[in-house]
Amino acid sequence: MANLNADDLRKLFAVWAAVMEENRAYLIDLDSKVGDSDLGLTMSDGFRTVSQTADEFDGADIGKMAYQAGKAMASAVPSTMGTLMASGLMAVGKELKGVETLDESGMHAFFKAFLDGVQSRGKAEVGEKTFLDGLAPAVNSLAKDAESGVSMKTAAQNAAEAAHQGFLNTKGMLAVHGRAGGRGEQSRDLLDPGAAVADLLMKGFAEFASGLAD
User: Could you give the residue ranges of the DSSP H alpha helices within the chain?
Assistant: First the structure.
């Protein structure tokens, strides 16, 4: 059983910042088809702020660190997606206030709170071609693996695979929200950039967890 502390979460946030920077052009390209092409910039800048804020946080309270990181992200990248991601992290902060270690069930709680925070802010539902369609399958996978006693390393890999499939499944969905929603039936031909962000977050989690014991 893994038990992650605040320092481990700092490492995860650093991985996320690196992943978003590495995929900046990829996200810009995806977003150019349905949005205003700023997603790559928003996510790379936003998660860099998250990582820097976590590095500067002095304490062991994972929830407090996540909340401060989310609040900093909201100020740094006040776009639609930036606000949604910040809301996810701030929801994590509220859910995990006072928590200093996270086991496999705790990491499910982390990502479930993130999902719920984004959903509450964005008012979307799974199946409406958004970020949720990438993250929800991963959260479900983490819940199943936590109940089964699967190691965090394996659970993270399974969650990453679930998120990637969720992202791929957005092709064929009808977009309901944002500029993509205005394209009607034409939106079915496109992959959702928001779900791509969820895919990248879970790939980052799997990359981070690859260094943990089985």
Answer: 6-22, 24-32, 39-56, 62-76, 80-95, 104-122, 132-148, 152-168, 178-181, 193-209
Q: State yes or no: pLDDT of 176 exceeds 90.
A: no
**Torsion on CA atoms 6, 92, 179, 49, rounded to nearest 10:** -30
CB 150 within 8 A of CB 182: no
Against a cut of 0.70, is the pTM above it? yes
Each residue's pLDDT tens digit, 117-163: 999 999 999 999 999 999 999 999 999 999 999 999 999 999 999 99
Domain ranges for the chain? 6-209
Q: How far apart are CA 150 and CA 144, in angstroms?
A: 9
**Cα(207)–Cα(172) distance, rounded to whole angstroms?**
29
* Amino acid present at 107: M
| The residue type at 204 | G
What amino acid occupies position 196?
A
- 6-209: which CATH topology? 1.25.40
Top-confidence residue, 131 or 188: 131
Q: What distance in Å separates the CA atoms of residue 194 and residue 136, rounded to the nearest whole number? A: 12
